[in-house]
Specification:
By secondary structure, the chain is α/β, with parallel strands linked by helices. The protein is about 45% helix and about 10% strand. The chain binds flavin-adenine dinucleotide. The site of flavin-adenine dinucleotide has 22 residues, from helix 14, helix 16 and helix 17.
């Protein structure tokens, strides 16, 4: 079935001649909207594959959560490339953008070598014909180029991707998957719930960013009032110092420093639609607390197998646990209160906030150590799990691939379980070794959670641009008491690109219009 286009494309492969450096206008740098989100949001004509150029290539490939990338080098004048585009797009639909069927696995990109701006980039990959496709870990495209006959390169030329079917087969072979071109979102899930693999949590760092950005979108949209401003400020103070993602820390600092502009007192009496249409407020309204790439519109570790399961609430739990193991002993009571108040005021799930607040209210002795707070949060989460286990079993509302469990299971932390026994009603009674649980939580939500970002050593270079995360820095940030958060916020802003942007806005700002 697919051999005719295959042959057409084969004979149309164009050897690279002297056409590369045409005088086409250079692509503009990435706009203010996310490159990665833009792909599927601009109506039916938008491409799924992300078009990159020399100015955004490193940032897009260095910053993607995807495990693999495909880069197609092409030339816009090349007929074979034009013929190939629909084939490439069929595959890109599966992997790219917020509506991707299988998000966060492969980032599908293309680079137009006929644009002058991309000459050096195409040379770096020894592009010899169009279209020429490469495969590899995204960070390797940033760190290295490619040369013919190069040994031991993690980048590979895709030699059998001339039709959508062949390209997907090739990808399936590399990833050990069985993706199909007709796969539809939430119908052909290849999710594996490998609960015994502690490394899986590393992917959740992207979800923590996603949840943070989503929470702040919700807050900007609906929830701020004179009664809960203080609660938001306190939670932001926690995030500025202890959020596992550097760019979320920077964004939180920015919100704190400009809090009155983000949430002006006179805004509280306003209709939000009026606010969002105001010139001055538009920038604040569009502010993305974890940087312009977030939210991406999909979940990694927290991805459910159904449209309405997991996602935000899972990401929020991971954020809370990651904060709980990062705080200092002396901050534990503050962190507890900030967390309880934040959920109570801003988590738009009535049942959840009520239950959670009831559990907060039942705590009578102030927390004195990180261990106290982290273990309280862990056991509170388990109480929610226990309740939902029963509810989901009777209502069938849970995610079949991710049933609720009392956590961590033995497969994940054997030493946490002293002994397990069954109660009369069939439920499991676990005698926990709480020292081991705390040790495990610290490792899991501390170091392992941020390990992916640490491994992306190349991307560390982008930190200066405010583009990406660290985390070693976060560990050292733990020693800063919360009282210094505001000072850190100011210092952090001085170095953040985002801060510069905002500060220049402040300088140029016209007197704010009165909303009354
Ligand atoms: C504060 C809060 C209160 C909530 N209350 C309710 C409620 O009352 N009713 C309701 O229907 N839903 C509630 N939810 C949502 C619910 O808890 C789940 O988040 C949702 O059902 C999605 O479940 P999940 O399978 O993704 O796992 P989640 O329960 O969201 O857990 C996310 C991840 O955390 C890890 N984890 C699981 N248990 C623990 C633990 N004890 N300690 C540390 N890590 C753990 C696991 O890796 C899991 O995949 C609440 C959510 C939050 C954030």
């Amino acid at each position: 079935m697919s051999w005719i286009p295959a042959i057409l494309l084969l004979v149309n492969l164009v050897p690279l001649g002297s056409h590369r450096a045409t005088a086409s206008p250079p692509l503009s740098a990435a706009g203010s909207r996310s490159l990665l989100r833009a792909v599927a949001s601009d109506g039916p004509a938008a491409d799924y594959a992300v078009e990159l150029n020399a100015t955004n290539f490193d940032a897009a490939l260095g910053g993607t959560p995807a495990t693999y990338a495909v880069v197609e080098f092409f030339a816009h004048w090349c007929p074979a490339c034009r013929n190939y585009k629909p084939q490439y797009e069929k595959v890109a639909r599966l992997f790219n953008g917020p509506d991707a069927v299988h998000p966060g696995i492969v980032l599908m990109t293309r680079v137009d070598c006929a644009l002058k701006i991309n000459n050096k980039l195409c040379d770096k990959f020894s592009v010899s014909h169009y279209p020429m496709l490469f495969w590899g870990p995204p960070s390797k495209f940033v760190a290295t180029g490619w040369e013919p006959k190069q040994e031991k390169s993690e980048l590979r030329v895709i030699d059998d991707g001339r039709t959508a079917e062949r390209l997907l087969n090739w990808i399936n072979k590399q990833t050990g998957s069985s993706y199909g071109l007709d796969d539809e979102k939430f119908e052909n899930e290849h999710l594996t719930s490998n609960i015994s693999d502690p490394e899986q949590i590393a992917r959740a760092v992207y979800d923590v960013e996603e949840a943070t950005a989503t929470a702040f979108d919700i807050i900007l949209e609906h929830k701020i009032n004179s009664g809960n401003r203080a609660s938001l400020i306190q939670f932001l103070q926690l995030l500025v110092v202890h959020h596992p993602s550097r760019r979320c820390r920077q964004g939180s600092a920015e919100v704190l420093v400009n809090f009155d502009q983000f949430y002006p007192l006179d805004m509280l009496t306003l209709d939000r639609r009026e606010v969002s249409s105001g010139d001055d407020q538009t920038a604040f309204h569009n502010f993305q607390i974890c940087g312009k790439e977030v939210p991406r519109g999909y979940w990694m570790f927290c991805r459910g197998s159904k449209n309405d399961t997991r996602g935000f609430s899972c990401g929020l739990w991971v954020l809370l646990h990651s904060l709980s193991v990062r705080i200092e002993d002396g901050e534990s009571q503050f962190a507890f209160r900030a967390t309880c108040d934040f959920i109570h005021n801003f988590f738009i799930c009535e049942e959840c906030r009520q239950h959670f607040y009831a559990m907060c209210s039942s705590v009578s002795t102030p927390f004195k150590t990180t261990r106290d707070f982290a273990l309280w949060l862990w056991s509170t989460h388990n109480k929610v799990n226990e309740r939902l286990m029963k509810a989901e079993a009777s209502l069938g509302t849970g995610d079949p691939k991710f049933p609720k469990i009392i956590w961590p299971p033995k497969q994940l932390c054997a030493s946490c379980h002293r002994s397990d026994s069954r109660r009369n009603d069939g439920s499991i009674n676990i005698d926990w070794d709480q020292d081991e649980v705390f040790k495990f939580l610290k490792q899991y939500y501390g170091k392992t959670l941020v390990s992916l970002y640490q491994k992306k050593d190349v991307i560390q270079k982008d930190i200066a641009n405010g583009a990406l995360e660290d985390s070693a820095a976060s560990t050292s940030a733990v020693v800063v008491p919360i009282g210094a958060a505001l000072a850190i916020a100011v210092a952090s802003c001085a170095f953040g690109a985002l801060a510069c942007y905002w500060r220049s806005r402040q300088k140029n700002r016209k007197p704010r219009r009165s909303w009354n």
